[in-house]
Amino acid sequence: MSKKLVIKVTAGADAPERCSQAFTVAAVAVASGVEVSLWLTGESSWFALPGRAVKFELPHAAPLPELLASLLAAGRVTLCTQCAARRGIEPGDTLPGVRIAGAQVFVSEIMADGVQALVY
């Protein structure tokens, strides 16, 4: 059975510690060889756009752009369809490698064998 971790992050700059924790856990899991799928929802949706992660600051935390880059390189990053629409984010607006998908895809990911899911 393969190991897969699905993380749904709802927090952004509005709750920086929760946001940073989600990205940190996801990046550490990827570095440990775990298959990771990070879902950007709510205020974290903005991090699907170029230049947004560099504006995020949290003392004593790993830089968000580096965490996001590692996830885009070795994991999967998905932007919630409805969250994107509410913010006027179109598929061509996102960072390369970010897909836009909805609840059906999220449910299929979390219901697969060997999957652990976390929500931040």
TrEMBL record:
Pfam annotation, one family: DsrE
Tell me the domain of life: Bacteria
Under the heading InterPro entries, the entry gives:
DsrEFH-like (IPR027396), Sulphur_relay_DsrE/F-like (IPR003787)
Name recorded for this polypeptide? Sulfur reduction protein DsrE
